[in-house]
TrEMBL record:
SUPFAM superfamilies: FAD/NAD(P)-binding domain. It comes from the Archaea. One of its GO terms (molecular function) is oxidoreductase activity. Pfam families: Pyr_redox_2. This is NAD(P)/FAD-dependent oxidoreductase. Residues 4-301 form the FAD/NAD(P)-binding domain.
């Protein structure tokens, strides 16, 4: 009995690996590069570039303090070359990992038939199928949109743009704006509604004032037309700079049209077991909509794999931690299980955790805001800005997810300074 997985991004790669570990026969089909958007065009590229922007930010701070005198000469061409070299190594490792559990990896464009998948002019029969074809950047229907770049083009740029117009106001838009503003580009962020509406308003204000480098943020502004090196807004303003679209994602669900049921937004419709309208066909990751996050895609892929192998499994989407990769990370989570109850809110400044010591002199060590159910001693929502917020909020979101009262956290022993922020947050909640 053969199982076929189409797409090797986080959902498909982890799903096929899980199936192999469970002793199932698996064929993994990938159209382009193994590991999907995350490694090749998305979060891993952003993380690599963010490492460089953090280094530049630290260098500028140390120069201001006067104990280091240095000038940085950035070669974007060499950055791209080294990112590409690293990607090639990781692709090989990801393929070896999948093959290590007996899976077969095939490269080519798949076509789904009733009981088989066609790839490279070969018909492969399957017992069960997982569709994990991901998503792609959404390109708005405006005049001149063909001139716009997306995250798929970040490694195709020859040099750091002098001016960049980023269209969109979500996490991807913010991360790209931070990177190129730190690298020296003059950046406009053009937002149809509100910038970073994922964040609490106080957290958003702190990010704009203390975390992001200088950039021009235009809220409640839409783009009417793009040119090769300009955008024209609906207000009639003409802004010089390369257009860059960060306006959401579109599911790669065309492969499944007419084969399984789709949602109104063309994502593949699945139930809580990641099962489609066909009993033997499953789907996972961005192609199903919902949370467009690598950890969630992995979780869905593993869930689908276990169900395919006969081990009933469901995904819980409560208290999903998220982060914005900036020069100082911004992380947040919310416990949706806590309904309309009376809550209290505390806001505390950041402290000298990892990476924060040399920010104390400027007073920009961060900020955390926590809303909690004091009667039951449980966190409802947290927004945190600090160099360690990615681990801090991951820890706390786990407590939120398992519905643990904070009293049970009292025996937690931090490793100084890596988890000091956790200790301070919990200590404040106990007061």
């Amino acid at each position: 009995m053969t199982n076929i997985v189409i797409g090797s991004g986080p959902a498909g790669r982890l799903g096929s690996y899980e199936l192999g570990k469970l002793g199932e026969d698996v064929i993994l089909i990938e159209k382009n590069h193994i590991a999907g958007t995350c490694l090749n065009e998305g979060c891993m590229v952003i993380c690599a570039l963010s490492d460089i922007s953090k280094f530049i930010d630290s260098n500028n701070r140390f120069n201001d303090y006067g104990f280091i005198k240095s000038q940085i000469d950035v070669s974007y061409e060499k950055i791209v070359a080294k990112i590409t070299e690293t990607q090639e190594k990781l692709r090989k490792l990801n393929q070896i990992e999948n093959e290590s559990v007996g899976n077969k990896v095939i490269y080519g464009e798949a076509k789904i038939n009733e009981d088989s998948v066609e790839v490279n002019n070969e018909s492969l029969e399957y017992d069960k199928l997982m569709i994990a074809t991901g998503a792609r950047p959404h390109i708005p229907d405006i005049k001149g949109s063909e001139y716009g770049l997306t995250n798929k083009d970040i490694l195709k740029i020859d040099e750091i743009p002098d001016k960049l117009n980023i269209i969109g106001g979500g996490i991807i838009a913010c991360e790209v704006a931070n990177i190129f503003a730190t690298l020296g580009s003059e950046v406009n962020v053009i937002v149809r509604s509100e910038f970073l509406k994922e964040l609490d308003s106080d957290t958003k204000d702190y990010v704009i004032k203390h975390v992001l480098p200088d950039m021009n943020i235009l809220e409640n502004t839409d783009v009417e037309e793009c040119g090769k090196n300009k955008v024209i807004t609906t207000n009639g303003d003409e802004l010089e700079g390369i257009p860059f679209f960060a306006t959401g994602r579109v599911p790669n669900s065309e492969i499944a049209e007419g084969f399984v049921d789709l949602n109104p937004d063309n994502t593949i419709k699945v139930n809580e077991f990641m099962q489609t309208s066909r009993d033997n066909v499953y789907a996972a990751g961005d192609v199903t909509g919902g949370w467009q996050l690598t950890p969630v895609a992995r979780m869905e892929g593993i869930c689908a794999a276990r169900n395919i192998a006969g081990y009933l499994n469901k995904v819980s989407y409560n208290s999903i931690p998220q982060t914005i990769s900036l020069n100082t990370e911004v992380s947040f989570a919310e416990n949706e299980k806590i309904g309309d109850v009376e809550t209290e809110t505390i806001a505390i400044p950041g402290i000298a955790g990892p990476g924060a010591f040399w920010k104390i002199l400027s007073g920009n060590t961060g900020y955390s805001k926590i809303e909690f159910d004091k009667q039951n001693n449980k966190i409802k929502k947290i927004n945190s800005i600090s160099p360690s917020s990615t681990s801090d909020v991951a820890y706390l979101s786990y407590l939120m997810r398992i519905d643990s009262p904070l009293d049970e956290y009292s025996n937690f022993l931090e490793i100084h300074p890596s988890t000091d922020t956790n200790y301070k947050i919990i200590k404040n909640l106990w007061l």
